[in-house]
């Protein structure tokens, strides 16, 4: 099936088997391997990308469902020579070890800050009209991104740093 | 270069680059998604076909019939491998992993077919169309049912000192308790994956692996081809924790299929396959018997442990730390292995200690309560500075357990702990504190490296060593920079390639110290070679600021290197210092939990680990390793369990939703302190391992905190709320 969408600002047209997930379209058909496959079941968050500004598990959605969508992957956030502030904060705070969950953590982190700013409440929000940044909010909202290396405290520190200096 | 006596002063002591919290040099690649993992080398393996492993749906028996016709007829299918058309393989080498060699089934999810197609989706669909029937055989899957059939094992000999039975029965205070720990899974985030291609008779495999030379041996050995014809690469590894010490079906089947098709083949195990197809940490049943005086001094130390494995498998040596951790003149420590038909057990982060301490350190807590001695004080009272089995002639190379415990108690506010359990309340939460000692034996492995100085004054380190998140890239760079008088920016590190000199690899916490020793040895040789080339007396030279200097003369490294550069290779080998001295790293772990008085939910509120592990090459990456260990320890205490399903002879909760590991919301800010020390008997680096120390003992500190909070002692890990609920106080 043909499908066209924009990835990291570049218009892309592909012809894909309808069974191809958005994740595999990126990884196997566009060689954008920054988005990782940890489980292929929506259970780990390693495949997190932004579609039209919202984070999603790209393994849980078929590529052909994204006609006209705007996809941003870890490669679109920054490059080794020109890191996004969140990527730089992950390096500074050592918010990773093996690096396999990291692109997903970073995409989620960027989206989480926007969600908090937009006043979207979470399970730990006490007053639904008063959504504010806190470590507890970050931990709750980041819990769909597993890091088995468990750099969790460093990831929270990186997100806090970006939030404080935004 | 052999390490045979305690290290004297050396260039690393300057601590200019080594011991500094330098950011990971592989960081920018990883955070930008540019670091390639095994499955991701599109350019090096153009036109790769996709493989999919079909696993057995029975644990034991034989394949009765296997029909691949429908699968072969499906779109895009290029090849279906089964035992009918797979070449003969060898199982002779220690690291061999033969696949599809016959109809016999020994493990649930054992590969029974390998389907290769143009696309992943086609391969996956066709694998489901392979029809297999089995004749099932009866197997043993319940450790408790076979625990009495345990046999002694060579790798963990009994330790018998004095007269345990007599001392135990005469002891004024005794503890006799049995703890159980479940099967656990590594659950590293990158699935096992490989891609293989042939150029003539030369095979190249990129595979997710911790130990290049074992994978190299295993792949060449299994396929029966010379190692010189095989190249194995693993530059970036998405975690391992022991799982990737070994090879499984992926590199072998990819290689066979790639040869048959004359085209590269890639394959990743699916997440659900991993839990049963690969290995896991085996469950244990551990009986601890402690006899002590009223003052808490141990007179009888008994630890019996049993675990299960397939025939020829390893034991979970959960009693090993008990041989060295505490004093006691009379000792009886025994490790047994029973045969089970579950998936094969293997090493997972701190095999032995990680679960051994879950039992021993809770039993110590029970002894503290019975004697009325504070748990921190009890451990200090039973500290011993030599191997209690061998006597004072075998002292510890360095042992600062007491300092870890005292520093930790002070920093954590241990004095505020209420000795009587179940007495501290914070709203709905019952609050308690727990402590445990951490212990991990220090292992060393021979390790080599090649170092090149080029005309830009840049040093490049090449070694088979892997970085599985452990920070190898960075710390090996730091060692080279320190040795050569360069800033870290002037050092490049290349890892994970069998064309490089053989290294220790990443396992057993031996990597940082051993591989660094290899780089140290190579840099010593490079210093000599450079000094000579510069025309200096090799004994009296200094390397600083990119220059080599001697007797008032100084030349830049770039200039000395010249157009040809200087390349040397060396290997660190280890004499018998690990035999002469007991060597281990130590920790004091402190934990505060809150237990919901109504629901039994357990929350870790605070945790501190004070660690003593020799020289800390990079406090930033080392701390991160400890965070990881502590978190996995919390997982072991509170949630991780592979549930055996006896109907299928495997683990039923085989994915990341059902095998529960800690997530962000479970983990508060964790505190890690390293004692300032060096261990001159570990290597020239004077460092010991930290990758596993963090997990060793931590779970017991959590469990002891739960007891302190509630007065409920659970001896069956993990401490899930269903075990707490019926016993919670009704107030
Ligand atoms: S790969 Fe998508 S959530 Fe795990
Ligand atoms: S960095 Fe390894 S899983 Fe997060």
Can you identify the CATH class of the domain at 391-442 and 583-727 in chain B?
Alpha Beta
Question: What percent of residues of chain A are in strands?
Answer: 5-15%
Total DSSP E strands of chain A: 5
Q: How many runs of DSSP E, i.e. beta strands of chain B?
A: 31
Summarize this structure briefly.
The complex is a heterodimer of chains A (166) and B (731). With 166 residues, chain A is an alpha+beta fold.
Annotation keywords:
A: 166 residues, alpha+beta, Ubiquitin-like (UB roll), DNA polymerase, domain 1, 2 domains, 6 helices, 14% strand, B: 731 residues, Aldehyde Oxidoreductase, domain 4, six-stranded mixed sheet, 31 strands, binds FE2/S2 (inorganic) cluster
SSE diagram, text form:
The complex is a heterodimer of chains A (166) and B (731).
Chain A (H helix, E strand, L loop, with lengths): L1 E6 L2 E6 L6 H8 L18 E4 L2 E4 L12 E3 L1 H4 L7 H8 L9 H16 L17 H7 L10 H13 L2
Parallel strand pairs in A: 1-5
Antiparallel strand pairs in A: 1-2, 3-4, 3-5
Helix pairs in contact in A: 3-6
Chain B lengths: L1 E2 L23 H5 L17 E7 L5 E7 L1 H4 L4 E5 L22 E2 L5 E7 L2 H9 L2 E6 L6 H4 L4 E2 L6 E3 L2 H7 L2 E9 L11 E7 L2 E6 L4 H12 L6 E4 L15 H13 L3 E4 L2 H7 L6 E9 L5 E12 L20 E10 L13 H19 L3 H7 L19 H12 L12 E2 L2 E13 L5 E7 L5 E5 L8 H13 L6 E5 L15 H23 L8 E3 L2 E4 L2 E4 H5 L4 E9 L2 H4 L3 E13 L5 E11 L6 H20 L5 E2 L4 E2 L18 E5 L23 H13 L10 H4 L7
Parallel strand pairs in B: 1-26, 2-14, 12-13, 16-17, 21-22, 28-31
Antiparallel strand pairs in B: 2-6, 3-5, 3-7, 4-6, 8-17, 9-17, 10-15, 11-12, 11-14, 15-16, 18-19, 19-27, 20-21, 20-26, 23-24, 24-25, 27-28, 29-30
Helix pairs in contact in B: 9-17, 12-13, 16-17
The structure holds FE2/S2 (inorganic) cluster (2 copies).
């Amino acid at each position: 099936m043909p499908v066209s969408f924009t990835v990291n600002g570049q218009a892309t047209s592909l012809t894909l088997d309808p069974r191809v997930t958005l994740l595999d379209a990126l990884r196997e058909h566009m060689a954008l391997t920054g988005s990782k496959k940890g489980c292929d079941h929506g259970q780990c968050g390693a495949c997190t990308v932004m579609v039209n500004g919202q984070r999603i598990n790209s393994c849980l959605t078929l590529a052909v469902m994204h006609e006209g969508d705007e996809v941003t992957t870890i490669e679109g956030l920054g490059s080794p020579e020109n890191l996004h502030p969140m990527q730089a904060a992950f390096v500074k705070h050592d918010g990773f070890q093996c690096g396999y969950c990291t692109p997903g953590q970073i995409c989620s982190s960027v989206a989480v800050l926007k969600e908090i700013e937009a006043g979207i409440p979470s399970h730990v929000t006490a007053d639904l009209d008063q959504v504010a940044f806190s470590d507890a909010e970050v931990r709750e909202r980041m819990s769909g991104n597993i890091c088995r290396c468990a750099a969790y405290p460093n990831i929270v520190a990186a997100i806090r740093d970006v939030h404080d200096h935004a | 270069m052999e390490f045979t006596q305690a290290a004297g002063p050396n260039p690393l002591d300057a601590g200019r680059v080594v011991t500094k919290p330098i950011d990971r040099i592989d960081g920018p690649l990883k955070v930008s998604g540019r670091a390639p993992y095994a499955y991701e080398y599109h350019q090096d393996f153009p036109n790769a076909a996709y493989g999919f492993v079909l696993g057995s749906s029975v644990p034991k028996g034989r394949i009765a019939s296997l029909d691949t016709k429908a699968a072969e007829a499906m779109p895009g299918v290029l090849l279906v491998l089964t035992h009918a058309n797979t070449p003969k393989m060898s199982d002779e080498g220690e690291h061999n992993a033969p696949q599809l060699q016959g109809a016999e089934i020994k493990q649930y999810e054992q590969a029974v077919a390998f389907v290769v197609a143009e696309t992943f989706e086609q391969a996956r669909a066709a694998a489901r169309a392979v029809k297999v029937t089995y004749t099932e055989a009866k197997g043993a899957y319940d450790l408790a049912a076979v625990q009495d059939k345990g046999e002694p094992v060579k790798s963990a000999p009994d330790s018998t000192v004095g007269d345990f039975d007599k001392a135990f029965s005469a002891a004024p205070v005794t503890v006799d308790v049995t703890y159980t720990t479940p099967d656990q899974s590594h659950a590293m985030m990158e699935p096992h994956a490989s891609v293989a291609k042939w150029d003539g008779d030369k095979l190249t495999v990129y595979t997710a692996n911790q130990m290049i030379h074992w994978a190299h041996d295993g792949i060449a050995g299994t396929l029966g081809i010379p190692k010189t014809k095989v190249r194995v690469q693993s530059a970036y590894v998405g975690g391992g924790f022991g799982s990737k010490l070994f090879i499984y079906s992926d590199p072998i089947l990819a290689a066979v299929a790639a040869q048959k098709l004359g085209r590269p083949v890639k394959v990743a195990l699916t997440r659900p396959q991993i839990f049963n197809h690969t290995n896991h940490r085996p469950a244990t049943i551990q009986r601890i018997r402690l006899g002590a005086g009223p003052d808490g001094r141990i007179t009888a130390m008994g630890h019996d442990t049993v675990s299960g494995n397939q025939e020829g498998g390893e034991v979970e040596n959960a009693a090993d730390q008990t041989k060295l951790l505490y004093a006691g003149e009379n000792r009886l420590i025994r490790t047994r292995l029973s045969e089970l038909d579950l998936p094969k057990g293997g090493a997972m982060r701190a095999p032995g200690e990680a679960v051994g301490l879950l039992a021993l350190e809770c039993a110590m807590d029970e002894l503290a309560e019975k004697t009325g001695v504070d748990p921190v004080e009890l451990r200090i009272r039973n500290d011993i500075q030599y191997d209690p089995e061998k006597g004072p002639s075998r002292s510890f190379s360095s042992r600062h357990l007491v300092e870890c415990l005292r520093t930790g108690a002070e920093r954590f506010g241990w004095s505020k702990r209420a000795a009587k359990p179940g007495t501290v309340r914070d709203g709905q939460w019952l609050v308690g504190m727990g402590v445990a000692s951490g212990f991990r034996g220090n292992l060393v492995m021979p390790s080599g490296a090649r170092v090149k100085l080029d005309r830009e004054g840049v040093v490049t380190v090449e070694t088979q060593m892997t970085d599985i998140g452990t920070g190898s890239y960075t710390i090996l760079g730091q060692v080279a920079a320190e040795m050569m008088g360069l800033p870290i920016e002037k050092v490049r590190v290349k890892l994970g390639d069998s064309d490089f000199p053989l290294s220790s690899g990443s396992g057993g916490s031996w990597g940082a110290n051993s591989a660094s020793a290899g780089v140290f040895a190579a840099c010593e040789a490079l210093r000599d070679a450079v000094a000579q080339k510069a025309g200096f007396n090799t004994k009296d030279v200094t390397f600083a600021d990119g220059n080599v200097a001697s007797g008032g003369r100084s030349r830049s490294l770039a200039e000395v290197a010249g157009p040809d550069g200087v390349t040397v290779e060396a290997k660190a080998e280890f004499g018998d210092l690990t035999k002469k001295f007991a060597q281990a790293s130590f920790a004091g772990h402190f934990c505060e939990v809150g237990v919901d008085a109504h629901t039994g939910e357990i929350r870790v509120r605070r945790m501190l680990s004070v660690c003593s592990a020799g020289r800390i090459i990079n406090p930033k990456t080392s701390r991160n390793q400890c965070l990881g260990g502590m978190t996995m320890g919390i997982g072991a205490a509170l949630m991780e369990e592979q549930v055996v399903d006896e109907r299928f002879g495997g683990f039923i909760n085989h994915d990341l939703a059902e095998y529960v590991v800690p997530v962000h919301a479970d983990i508060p800010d964790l505190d890690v302190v390293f004692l300032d020390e060096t261990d001159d008997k570990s290597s020239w680096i004077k460092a010991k391992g930290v990758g596993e120390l963090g997990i060793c003992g931590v779970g017991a500190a959590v469990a002891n905190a739960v007891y302190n909070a509630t007065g409920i002692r659970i001896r069956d890990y993990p401490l899930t709320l269903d075990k707490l609920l019926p016993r919670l106080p009704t107030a």
